[in-house]
Amino acid sequence: MTPDLIAAFVLYAFVSSITPGPNNTMLLASGVNFGIKASLPHMLGINIGFSILVLSCGLGIGTLFELWPALHDVLKYAGALYMAWLAWKIARSGAPQTAGAKPKPFTFLQAAAFQWVNPKAWIMAIGAIAAYTPADGFFTNVLIITLLYSLTGAPCCFSWVAAGRLLRGFLASPARLQAFNIAMALLLLASLYPVMADAVKDIGLMLS
Fold it and tell me: What pLDDT, on a 0 to 100 scale, did the predictor assign at position 1?
């Protein structure tokens, strides 16, 4: 990889990592509800889980979708259902809690596993491999891409959690916190619009 290509990729990695999406929406909510320290496993899970996804795409797992297109649909709709469930959980985070129902931040494994059903993560990973990984010395370049994405993504994750932490004072009111969590849940659901549009199109084709 040339210095110019590396610079272009780092810019791509930063923009794709810092812009709103399912991960960043949940990190912002986690920062508000649990603080920075409790959200560290969540941040680390995203960073490492996504790095594994990028590496896997570079090693050829993305070609499975070309061989079995139905696998892509299964992953897409399963991910949408899971994200809808997460939105419901986020919306309830600010509600009064009983002794046995206190919400908890994402664990490392939960955050890492979420990358495999996160549509934006797949787009980012496949885009990085397809557009920024030269064929000459491909395996080495995949490792470089994975490392650069990890180094770029980590501060982006932290910035969203830190922003949430800064909002905690303003959201100290239970009513404001509840409204914030509902807004975050709606944003997470809004990110599912492309998936839902595809589902409506598929249903229309089946009924026609």
Answer: 75
